[in-house]
Amino acid sequence: MTVMAAYIGxxxxxxxxxxxxxxxxxxxxxxxxxxxxxxxxxxxxVGFSGQPIFTNAVCRLxxxxxxxxxxxxxxxxxxxxxxxxxxxMGPRVLDLDLLIFGTWVLDTPGLVLPHPRMAEREFVLLPxxxxxxxxxxxxxxxxxxxxxxxxxxxxxxxRSPSPGV
Length: 165
Hints:
CATH architecture: 2-Layer Sandwich
Number of strands: 7
Order of helices and strands: EHEEEHEEEHH
Largest sheet: 5 strands, antiparallel
Radius of gyration: 15 Å
Helix content: 25-40%
């Protein structure tokens, strides 16, 4: 496989979020070349609100892995750091999501690309816009910055960030 750009969302709301995300990025370097990492942003939880504030970031990883293998690696890293989650959308030490993989569009039981809810989530779009504002969403045909601006204008749902850390 050729080298592809993979955009990975990172989140943590248990423990020292910035340090956990920094270690996760270091681990991701074993899977390819990380050439961009956003600043961290503090954000409110979505779904289950009775949990701590999140620290979120996005990184760009250049990799030769196919997206299925990459997702398997991301899940393995999550399990090593966090163990098993008690429930979906619940608190976690580390969450890694494959957001975009090149221009791939997939809808399989194990993987949907681009991430199906990324355009509705400010906690994804804000750090993604920090490193790739002109990146075009492969399905929607809009740039990340355009999607973020639309979300902020109120035409989509998401969570608002608190000031960055």
